[in-house]
Write a structure and sequence with these properties.
Helix content is 38%, strand content 7%. With 247 residues, the chain is of the alpha+beta class. It is rod-shaped and about 110 Å long. The N and C termini lie far apart (110 Å).
Length: 247
């Protein structure tokens, strides 16, 4: 059997009237984009009388592109029955193929690295998006290339407790632990952490030391603690806990 590719005018080709395969406008546009990118690399199969056996979609796409001729292969050896069967088989058998998902993602990733327009591959938008999401997940699991020196990053967990081990607010819980020990040390020095709350306008209360409880207030060395003005405006100027002179 000697098969050869020829060029035939589109006007001399006749679509098969009983062709059960349908083509949407969107698919014709995809085929046209493919032809524009790669060329007409898949010839139309025709019978000896010019009736199309396979390639109806490619023929419509060629017309949309304004082409006047297309490459064809004439199958003169087929009987009428074989010709009718091939019209169906050429479409249906191709649908039985599958994909190796890992290899497909690897090829898509390589094409994306070259900025190739992946929409030309014919995948639906949602399907392509799902494949690209899987590629991003694979890349994140693989981590940076060996020797790249890039720091390892851990994907954030779904909750703060998962990310930090314990809820972050428990670390700064001032009602227990180290914070309470610190507060008791302040009180021993005559300092109240609540000082200044509810202070009258134009002034601030003096420190509430142990003299209020009938005990002499003394610094660690035994000397009485001086009265200090703890108003916020003065604390900004000379530091909290220091007397302001000539203010």
């Amino acid at each position: 059997m000697d098969l050869k590719i020829e060029s035939r005018p589109i006007a001399k080709l006749v679509p098969y009237a009983q062709n059960a395969r349908t083509h949407t406008d969107e698919q014709i546009a995809q085929i046209a984009a493919s032809i524009a990118e790669f060329g007409f690399v898949n010839p139309v199969l025709i019978a000896g009388d010019g009736v199309v056996i396979a390639g109806h979609g490619r023929l419509l796409a060629a017309q949309r592109l304004g082409m006047t001729e297309v490459p064809i292969i004439a199958l003169d050896h087929l009987t009428e029955t074989q010709r009718r069967a091939l019209v169906i088989a050429d479409n249906r058998i191709a649908e039985n193929a599958g994909w190796d998902e890992s290899l497909l993602r690897a090829e898509l990733a390589a094409l994306r690295e070259t900025d190739f327009d992946l929409e030309l591959l014919g995948f639906a938008e949602a399907e392509l998006g799902s494949l690209l999401d899987a590629i991003n997940v694979d890349a994140g699991a693989a981590g940076p290339p060996a020797g790249s020196g890039a720091p390892e990053e851990t994907a954030p967990s779904s909750t703060l407790a998962d990310r930090f081990g314990i809820p972050p607010f428990s670390v700064l819980n001032a009602r227990e632990g180290w914070w309470q020990n610190r507060k008791r040390a302040w009180i021993d020095l005559g300092i109240r952490s609540e000082l200044g709350r509810g202070a009258p306008i134009g002034g601030a209360p003096l420190p509430l030391d142990r003299a209020d409880a009938g005990q002499p207030s003394a610094a660690p060395g035994g000397s009485p603690l001086p009265a200090a003005d703890y108003s916020k405006s003065k604390a900004r100027g000379d530091g909290r806990g220091k007397s302001i002179v000539n203010d």
